[in-house]
Fold:
Amino acid sequence: MKNSGGRQKSILLSKPLLFSCIRPYGKGVDVAAPDTSITRASELLDAYEDEYNGVIIDPQSLPDNANAFADVLQSSLVSWKLEGKKGVWLKILEQQAGLVPIALKQGFSYHHAEKGYVMLTYWIPDEPCVLPSTSTHQIGVGAFVMNENKEVLVVIEKKCPLRCSGMWKLPTGLINKSEEIFNGAIREVKEETGIETTFLEVVAFRHAHQVAFDKSDLFFVCMLKPLTLQINIDESEIEEAKWMALEEFLGLPFHRDDKLLRRITSICIAKYQNKYQGFTAQCMMSKFDDRLTYLYHGCL
Amino acid sequence: MKNSGGRQKSILLSKPLLFSCIRPYGKGVDVAAPDTSITRASELLDAYEDEYNGVIIDPQSLPDNANAFADVLQSSLVSWKLEGKKGVWLKILEQQAGLVPIALKQGFSYHHAEKGYVMLTYWIPDEPCVLPSTSTHQIGVGAFVMNENKEVLVVIEKKCPLRCSGMWKLPTGLINKSEEIFNGAIREVKEETGIETTFLEVVAFRHAHQVAFDKSDLFFVCMLKPLTLQINIDESEIEEAKWMALEEFLGLPFHRDDKLLRRITSICIAKYQNKYQGFTAQCMMSKFDDRLTYLYHGCL
Structure:
């Protein structure tokens, strides 16, 4: 599909646009007179260009006044079209939410939103839009923690849906923003049970679709090694936690009846017996984006 | 962190709320008189409950009129608070974007947005919000495709950022909504080069943060086996594609200087020589959510 072609379509602020870009409104200035045309041909919204011949409008440059915004947005679009620009990115902060309907009316679409702002986009060319879509996945982690007595760390969640109410299960959770996968697993175990662990391997991952808000879900099963044994639960989230004999865990009805969970447990047991190899995490620098990131891979 | 505690916090419509819920406005009805109080104590927004004692407002039940919406939203929040409800989900379609500032004013926050709508949330209890965050990741794929002459399939992208302009690289891309990882890799190779392939293994994955819109990125390296050899490029995306001798690929300046890429290539070569084991994908049913999903794991 056209909107997923390029890999490096992240939106990066680069240099200010070289084309005419006169700032018509100071930061936070409210242009109060709605019936006065304040937009001249030379007045455009402040903007930066991205790496794809697109335009990123400076959210601080938006007038508070609706009519002024409608005028300057229209002029800016005309100008950018003449200059052959492609995608236009418009971030509108929460305090200026009244401008959103105006942008939508001029052909912008919602792209994504976060606490505090909404991002809208406009595709200028008369060809299919190739702007990247917003994020598509949430990332979950599950932790298999077994002690030297072959007991598995299990919990009963307080806030789980009815179908798993009162059920013993592995500690799980969603990773936080910008959190590493293995750190998320270690944190969830610590939060839910008080047990300290170290990361061994990602032994498997599951990919599910249409989970939350029609988005997808990647769930990484992490094998962790316990460093402590004393359980101390988070009472706001967890009903109960304990070390359960592996045989008892394998015999739980939910485990017995669930092929996916059985496969995951078999893998974890094989790993425990040194008969399986998952992926470890190695911190590496890439020249491509000058970032230190983790590469997860098997043993070479 | 509190907002990532539970694993199963997907929002599912369940049964209509059992508490009083009289529909005051028909679908699409515009309540035109802004100065008339049309909200009685018994008039609340249509809503459903979720599995976490939360409330999901029916987007079709929102009045178009701003004052009417402000009144009924306020009454509904009072009622839901009395009933001990927790999170409130409010989806506002694009055509009613004028209601967004009203909801924000009453304490709602942006949660996420997609083409056509914005989702807002409100946390009623006097305790930290535990509503799940929106999706946090985009998922990329890269394909290592080597033929029997030890030639690697490489491309030069047309729309890449300046820093990789004119550079030979592996075919890459973002997966589509609800697309399987290996299918995304097969599709990208087919789109960019015309080469048909089958999936062998996910040999590694990289986790990068603060990539697009401050979101994270998981990039899965897939080993694919070519089924055809005749290259036929997508001229809108690709400048050039060819089979490049492995030795030549290894000697490319960008490859030589990039530790991460060198590691990935070493893994792929080891896999080609049957000296490495990555993760294959197995389609399985889970009783937990009655879904057929793919579990990626090594050889047991």
Remarks:
- The longest strand of chain B covers residues 197-208.
- Helices of chain B lie at 66-82, 100-105, 181-193, 246-251, 253-257, 259-272.
- Chain B touches chain A through 111 residues (CB under 8 Å).
